Description:
alpha/beta, Spore Coat Polysaccharide Biosynthesis Protein SpsA, Chain A, ten-stranded mixed β-sheet, two-stranded antiparallel ribbon, 8 helices, 14 strands, globular
Amino acid sequence: MKLGCMLINFNNGTGSRAWDCSKPPHTETPSPSDFLSRCLDTYFSTISTDCPLVVVDDGSTDDSIEILERYSDGITHFAKNTENIGLTPSMEIAAELLFREGCDVVCRFDGDIEFLTQGWDLRVLQYFLMNRRAGAVGAVQVTPCGGIWAHGDMIVHPDGHTHLFGPKSRTPENCQLSYGDGTHLGNVQCDSVMGSLAAFRTTAYKRVNGLRQEFNQLRGETEDLNLRLLLENFTCTSLGGVYVMHRASERADRCAVRDTDTNLDQSFTVWNNLWGFDKRNVNLTDVYEKWQGTPLARHLTISPSSEVLYLGP
């Protein structure tokens, strides 16, 4: 079984990292001041297999391309978009290149993460090998200060879109669990793996026709893909033995096309139209009525008083 990796980059170069949040109080002038060098240094130092790496720069306006070119010896294909067209079309470009390389699993990762687990790629491949219905596999996401931010996502949940094992307040300082404190996490079957590191079985990805064009220049494409995999009876699993640090909280403001106010609002509108519920404020009754009998409603049941109850994580 062959793994291929893809990095879709937009403005993760010099100046993109505005803060060092590894220890309180947060400090300015972090070193390094870019995300890419930490990301790729840890990628190449932790990966164990000889897998192709595709990089798509999505129209960066900083020095991202210069930084990426320093790692050219380890990059199989390097595509450069002339403008910021968004994650969905850029990921489709990268996925097609990996398919041509004969990859059985394609893994996307963000340019502002660090790889913390030696041989993480072998763990991902082993899970796919041992679990024939595995469609998506992800990792535990850690904050810069070492807290567990997410161990998979639930979309159909009483609290709306929820990061499992993460703080309810959605603030990094309030994480209840810490990386490296002796806590051992098992694998979690979830609705969606975190997009910061998300691996997909090629046959499953193709079965659902990849990312939907409705999410071009919008957010929500990863969650949408995962739910469609569930509907095809594949599983989505966050691996308790694979950790990545996501440094998004240290980011300076950037002008990505999908993060404009208009496109963020449109992201939720498109989601509601496709799935019939608001993932920020899920009405479990509506979800049960629309999706009963499918894996999307696998954690829902009806009480004796006809109330829809949630019995999942």
